[in-house]
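tool=predict chain=A
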Amino acid sequence: MKSYITHLECTFCYRIHNADVPQSVCEDCGKVLYPRYDLSLAKREFDRNVLQHRPKNMWRYFEMMPVRDERNILTLGEGLTPIFKTERLGKQMGCSNLYLKDEGLNPTASFKARGLSAAVSKAKELGITKIAMPSAGNAAGAMSAYAAKGGMEAHVFMPKDAPEANQKEVLITGGFLNLIDGLINDAGRISKGVAREKGLFDISTLQEPYRVEGKKTMGYEIAEQMGWNLPDAIIYPTGGGTGIVGMWKAFQEMEELGWIGNKRPKMFCVQSENCAPIVKALHDGSEFADIWINARTVAAGIRVPAAIGDYLILRSIRESGGDGVTVSDDDLLYQMTQVASLEGIFVCPEGGAITAALAQLLDKNILTEDEKILLLNTGSGLKYLELV
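tool=predict ok
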């Protein structure tokens, strides 16, 4: 197998960057870099039918991944999480074609395993041995786990009130845990300063080019698992937003490969009513999102006051014809119990949030009962026992 990666491209000013040396953000404008691939060559050589013989993890799409040498892959079996038809939940919600993709069945029990497997593998390939990042929770445990797998040094910066399970994940996998007063953006500021001081490579969300490539495999899997026909709508909890933009990138790549047509799902981002910078920007018609002051919610993964990829998230949602929805903590906690009691799936708080958002979208007739709707649960509720 060979990767068809050719270069990195700025998603804002489109400057080209070298994919074979460590990179962070665009050298000109400071915006997000995306890996780009020779899709015309891949279309001739990479047939989707070969996937049936591939390992059942996200690296089955190796040709569309940024690691050039398979020996540099650090995998714990991430990806190819199941999609369940949730008939009992659907009946209660009033929709007949409801599905849920359960990312809680990934290693480290969340979708963060995808992005960190890709980012830490590429860091290893580029000769990086010491990495750092801020995290609201699940990303920290994932980074520390993959760093352990690769024999690398991991430095994590987390808010003091981050879930205890995530803190323990970092410690037991040998990471250096730094607890700080404040939110994820405060942790990010401190993480960057320490990284500069100690020569650590920063793999913060969308501030290096490769975490998005792990997240985009959700899009590839959704297409493959649904017979190369995308759902009508995807409802997704949004903090840093890498999942939404990653899937949107995957859909574009697959169309150019000839694997799918031009149909796209409507993408709905879900945020807390007490931390909703993306939803506010969507409804204000803004290109960028303002930082959210006094952000608070029990769902740590969506307590993100500002996202470097805000313009990418907004662009993807608008191009899809989707929208943004806010939910209360009471509603998301209630929906956690509903999903668990009806389907036997213990979703994370963010998974409760997307179900609460679905109720709103159906009630307002933004989505209809016969549309094929996919809920994307990003992690396991077992990490949040204190909330139940």
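The first strand starts at residue 5 and ends at 10. The radius of gyration is 19 Å.
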